[in-house]
Amino acid sequence: MNAVPLKVLVCGSTFGQFWLAALQRYPLRFKVVGLLASGSARSRDCAQRYDIPLYTDIASLPEDIDLACVVLRATVMGGAGSVLAQQLMARRIHIIQEQPVHHDEVVANLRSAREFGVQYRVGNLYPHLPAVQQFIQSAHRLLRRQKLQFIDAACASQVAFPLIAILVEALGAPRPWQFHAQAQLPEAPFQVVQGQLAGIPLTLSVHNEVDPQDPDNHFQLLQQITLGLPRGTVIVDRYTWTRDVVPAFAYP
């Protein structure tokens, strides 16, 4: 017997349009039953393109939603994504929330999930991208033969969580770990963190500049990782986005 597709609500139409495109590729597993958004022209166009209902308030949502993808800025980015996630969990809806999410918000959301008997997860796209998977598999093969000497990494602050997830996948385990932020010069765009991950010396540069008027754009980088080994290095520093990953349309 075939499993019944999960009924999914996508919240937010900016980056949410990419979630809609991804969910559409797996009709046997997911059925998108609506878009929850502000009702802007972008949201209306997005809902029309995917032929799904557009909802502008929680009270109008159907009662049989299984999963909500909350693709809105969390509190740490000046948004209300976590507030919405908790409201939806109170309606017994499972949640996947787009990162970045502050660790205090994650704790509060997990408490809500436990209270209402639902699942809560932070979305973690990047470790599953083909280029990153190739990097992780290469690291596994090399680390069976050579001892890792150092890790040099850099990322935007918005994608620090997936960078650590990628490193944990590559190394196999995060412990023992420790991090110490270095003194930052005035107006310096990067915060340098030194420490250890899985007992390996780590230097991490985090780009901390965010445009408060447009925090979703103007990234200088995503993640860059170099693993230093006795006979060379393994590097991931860019991802290739193809037409089967990115929708043909992308609303501003």
Keywords for this structure?
alpha/beta; 12 strands; six-stranded parallel β-sheet; disordered C terminus; 6 helices; Rossmann fold; 2 domains; 252 residues
Quick structural overview:
With 252 residues, this protein is α/β, with parallel strands linked by helices.
Q: Explain this structure to me?
A:
The chain has 252 residues and is of the alpha/beta class. Helices cover 27% and strands 26% of the residues. The strands form two sheets. A six-stranded parallel sheet has the order 3-2-1-4-5-6, sandwiched between helices. It is globular. The protein has six helices and twelve strands.
Summarize the SSE layout with pairings.
Elements: E1 6-11, H1 16-24, E2 30-36, H2 41-50, E3 54-55, E4 67-70, H3 81-89, E5 94-97, H4 103-116, E6 120-122, H5 130-143, E7 150-156, H6 160-171, E8 178-181, E9 190-197, E10 200-207, E11 223-229, E12 232-236
Parallel strand pairs: 1-2, 1-4, 2-3, 4-5, 5-6, 7-10
Antiparallel strand pairs: 7-11, 8-9, 9-10, 11-12
